[in-house]
Write a sequence for this structure.
């Protein structure tokens, strides 16, 4: 007879009492911030439920936040917690309006959300993490680089009154340094590992049989490949003759590294050799051909044809050079002819055989994973012709003229598949992580992926309720084989790094920002930049506004335009730079431009053009240009400028926004705020004192000084502006060199 968990916040007879889950939850509560590494389908979500219930019981009035990398997974967690717990549950995603998200946050005890949504709301000041007693990072291996998990963990540790962090993953990665980085970013001191071989786990895991199915390329595909290889080899020889590469036996990674070296050479030289630009173009064309070969070998004719059509529309030198190559145009012709003749990759025929065999007799559920949406469409159309009941599942981004799925559509597809309305789910990588699709008998990988994390995630979609199977389609003597062996090798390395059951990691505590920080206005379009996260970390108070000019307004007179090096290059090409500079000097006395990054001269534009643009900004427009190395450096520089500008405390400044006044009150405030040294606070005081805009304009200097905060200097300047004769445009204009 099954035993069930008994807890005042867990519904009776809802969670089976598994000893290993209870011990894992108890260890998290006892030891503190922890990462749990366990195979998919072992019930990591149940562990999170047990910890959440105890935290809500201990800290009454607190909240639990569950973060997931995708919207479908966030919705799934909401449903799971609602099913198991006696607590108010909700979900927050970008599809929900900001004001409704704020209301949901206030009213709910358990919030399941995407990290980008919560990050955006925190930066906008809609709510904070102070009352969150547990934060769960699902698929926590993503907590690297600039991913939102990193900022949210830091913000949580800084602000929460009773912090506890729980990270969940089936695959933290093969690299030991990456595992340590994830732990440091999420402030986790404990890593607990459960494997398929653990005695307390084995009864709950169903074995998964992996089968490799190999196919050979057809003659039509071989002919196209031979032409593309010839195109690639010729260009690699040219690169070798230029001294860019040492051998023509290189892969895509080697080409990318070579491109970086050439770009650095261009950056270091005042007058780069023409050969450098020739090399950049050749490298770009080689990368294009490498991708075409990957599509041909692993995907088929239709995806390759679609890619070649997109390449044909490009106007770059690399694309034009390829289209002028007889061998490349011949490859395009053969691809088009194969497409018209209905030639398909042999994988497709083998896939249909597998699906038909599995769907005979007993009711079966199958997931087919493929990397590219073009391939997904090809498989779907073939399934329709073969009478196979399949449904497509992919992301929300629109690509190649096809709209992405909405959150509701994704949810409905998963629900329909779960209920048995479809036999086969055709999916891109969006269904790899965490999506709960029970009773899947077979996972088919249309192509191997060179990532142990993604292989583990895909394999974990089967073997949940009964014995599972995974079939991997591999084209012989192609990169398919290399990718598969790479993922196997990395998974073995990951297990070796985690062997022993528990890994202790030293994590340094976060540094609290010292003292009360300055205040700035930040443009609302900067909400996704790392700079705002860093400003938050170092104690800078800010408010998001749709600024008409610049990115960060520091005071009434000072505005900062922040550009990454790539954005700076782009703004030179499309002439935005000069328009922005003109608006900055027109609206602010002290405009500043920050250029972030150390690769300013590594693009495709001539270094002299970059230097000319820098000279124009600094000399012609009189705007100081400050270089910074990174988002952290930019944030520190903005803070330092703000401290210098705000020595006398938080400024009262009028914000230049794109938003036009709508109500009469807003119009009145807008007019009065346009007076010198009058921000929103003083504008409101003046209107309250004199009753109307007319009253303010007619007030004498003495009457103006009677209003709190309006001193003699400010009052005198206001009267001077109101009374001075209008003399027309100033003759002294800037000379703009575009």
């Amino acid at each position: 007879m099954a035993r069930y968990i008994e807890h005042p916040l867990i519904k009776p007879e809802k969670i089976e009492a598994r000893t290993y889950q209870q011990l894992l939850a108890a260890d998290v509560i006892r030891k503190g911030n922890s990462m749990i590494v366990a195979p998919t389908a072992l019930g990591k979500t149940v562990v999170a439920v047990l910890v959440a219930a105890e935290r809500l019981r201990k800290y009454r009035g607190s909240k639990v936040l569950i973060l997931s990398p995708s919207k479908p997974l966030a919705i799934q967690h909401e449903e799971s917690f609602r099913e198991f717990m006696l607590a108010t549950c909700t979900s927050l995603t970008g599809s929900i309006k900001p004001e409704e998200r704020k209301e949901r946050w206030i009213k709910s005890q358990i919030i399941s959300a995407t990290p980008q949504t919560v990050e955006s709301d925190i930066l906008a000041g809609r709510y904070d993490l102070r009352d969150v007693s547990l934060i769960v990072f699902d698929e926590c291996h993503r907590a690297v680089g600039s991913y939102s998990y990193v900022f949210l963990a830091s913000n949580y540790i800084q602000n929460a009154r009773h912090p506890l962090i729980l990270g969940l993953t089936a695959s933290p990665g093969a690299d030991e340094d990456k595992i340590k980085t994830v732990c440091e970013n999420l402030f986790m001191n404990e890593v607990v590992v459960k494997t398929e071989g653990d005695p307390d786990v084995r009864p709950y895991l169903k074995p998964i049989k992996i089968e490799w199915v190999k196919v050979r390329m057809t003659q039509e595909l071989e002919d196209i490949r031979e032409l593309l290889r010839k195109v690639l080899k010729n260009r690699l020889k040219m690169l070798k003759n230029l001294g860019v590469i040492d051998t023509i036996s290189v892969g895509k990674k080697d080409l990318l590294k070579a491109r970086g070296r050439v770009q650095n050479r261009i950056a270091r030289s005042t007058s780069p050799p023409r050969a450098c630009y020739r090399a950049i173009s050749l490298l770009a064309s080689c990368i294009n051909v490498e991708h075409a070969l990957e599509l041909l070998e692993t995907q088929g004719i239709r995806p390759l044809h679609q890619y070649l059509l997109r390449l044909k529309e490009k106007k770059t030198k690399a694309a034009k050079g390829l289209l002028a190559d007889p061998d490349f145009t011949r490859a395009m012709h053969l691809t088009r002819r194969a497409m018209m003749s209905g030639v398909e990759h042999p994988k497709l025929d083998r896939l249909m055989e597998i699906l038909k065999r599995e769907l005979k007799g007993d009711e079966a559920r199958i997931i087919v994973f493929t990397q590219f949406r073009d391939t997904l469409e090809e498989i779907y159309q073939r399934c329709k012709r073969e009478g196979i009941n399949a449904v497509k599942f992919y992301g929300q981004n629109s690509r190649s003229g096809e709209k992405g799925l909405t959150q509701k559509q994704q949810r409905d597809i998963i629900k329909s598949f779960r209920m048995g309305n479809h036999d086969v789910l055709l999916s891109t990588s969006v269904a790899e992580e965490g999506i709960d699709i029970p009773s899947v008998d077979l996972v088919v990988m249309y192509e191997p992926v060179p990532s142990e994390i993604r292989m583990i995630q895909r394999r974990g979609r089967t073997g949940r309720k009964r014995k599972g199977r995974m079939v991997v389609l591999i084209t012989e003597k192609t990169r398919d084989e290399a990718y598969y062996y790479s993922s196997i090798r990395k998974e073995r390395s990951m297990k070796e790094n985690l062997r022993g059951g528990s890994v202790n990691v030293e994590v340094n505590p976060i540094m609290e920002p010292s003292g009360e920080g300055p205040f700035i206005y930040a443009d609302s379009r900067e909400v996704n930049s790392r700079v705002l996260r860093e400003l938050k970390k170092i104690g800078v108070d800010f408010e998001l506004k749709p600024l008409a000019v610049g990115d960060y307004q520091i005071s009434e007179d000072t505005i900062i335009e922040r550009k990454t090096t790539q954005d700076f290059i782009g703004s030179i090409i499309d002439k935005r730079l000069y328009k922005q500079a003109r608006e900055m000097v027109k609206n602010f006395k002290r405009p500043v431009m920050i250029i972030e990054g150390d690769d300013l001269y590594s693009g495709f534009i001539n270094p002299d053009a970059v230097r000319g643009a820098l000279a124009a900004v600094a000399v012609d427009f009189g705007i100081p240009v400050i270089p910074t190395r990174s988002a952290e450096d930019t944030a520190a520089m903005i803070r330092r400028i703000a401290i210098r500008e705000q020595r006398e405390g938080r400024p009262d400044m009028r914000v230049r926004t794109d938003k036009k006044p709508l109500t009469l009150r807003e119009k009145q405030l807008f007019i009065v705020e346009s007076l010198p040294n009058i921000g929103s606070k003083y504008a409101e005081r003046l209107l309250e004192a004199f009753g109307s805009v007319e009253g303010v304009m007619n007030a004498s200097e003495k009457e103006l000084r009677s209003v709190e905060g309006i001193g003699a200097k400010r009052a005198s300047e206001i009267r001077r502006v109101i009374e001075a004769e209008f003399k027309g445009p100033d003759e002294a204009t800037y000379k703009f060199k575009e």
In short: The chain has 28 helices and 20 strands.
